């Protein structure tokens, strides 16, 4: 099964993608995680992406398409995968169709949460990490978050129309407790 998880920062994409990957036994492919790993390793892509990510802006389409195309070509993704954080622009979605090479996306799951909830979640996550001595994401601060929310509204949200027109979009209320959201997603897939 080939799924896309769509949702604003703080909606719980990472958490839900992980849970779905366990339930469905297919890998979670997160461009955010891949990019953070590239930054940590200091690869060419990472060096290019670091400042852009820190500001909360989207990195160039070519860069993430290259990352995701390589990842999808690996053998563990042959039976399916959950895309977490990709595509994030209509141009990326169009490129994805080529990357899939004849395969199709089976469903697009949109996590919907109101904006105040998102702010509380992300700033709460940053505070918790700080308190427990863990690393705080470089973009989990009020300034970068506001840029991330604007990027979502302007560049990513239009994807809901793109996928709705293809009959693939299912929207789930992601302000519910984690397990309820997972259950709603599983139901939406079935
Ligand atoms: P969130 O959804 O909480 O903002 P992610 O981990 O998905 O977090 O993404 C973090 C950052 O990585 C984004 O703000 C952006 O800079 C970059 N990024 C991740 N995926 C993409 C993508 N598909 N296209 C462009 N930039 C991306």
Would you give an account of this structure?
With 190 residues, the protein is α/β, with parallel strands linked by helices. It is built from 9 helices and 5 strands; from the N terminus they run βαβαααβαβαααβα. 57% of the residues lie in helices and 12% in strands. It has a 5-stranded parallel β-sheet with strand order 2-3-1-4-5, with helices on both faces. α1 (13-24) packs across α9, α2 crosses α3 and α4 (61-72) runs parallel beside α5 (90-99). The structure holds adenosine-5'-diphosphate (ADP). Residues 9, 13, 31-32, 35, 52-53, 56-59, 64, 85-86, 88, 92, 139, 148 line the site of adenosine-5'-diphosphate.
Q: Regions with pLDDT < 50 over 5+ consecutive residues?
A: none
Going by helix content, strand content and strand pairing, the class is alpha/beta
Residue share in helix: 55-70%
Proportion of strand residues:
5-15%
Instruction: Give the number of domains.
Output: 1
Ligand identities: adenosine-5'-diphosphate
Could you give the count of β-strands? 5
- Give the overall shape: globular
Element pattern in H and E: EHEHHHEHEHHHEH
Number of helices: 9
Provide the gyration radius in Å.
Answer: 16 Å
The CATH C-level name is Alpha Beta
Mean pLDDT: 95
**C-alpha end-to-end distance:** 11 Å
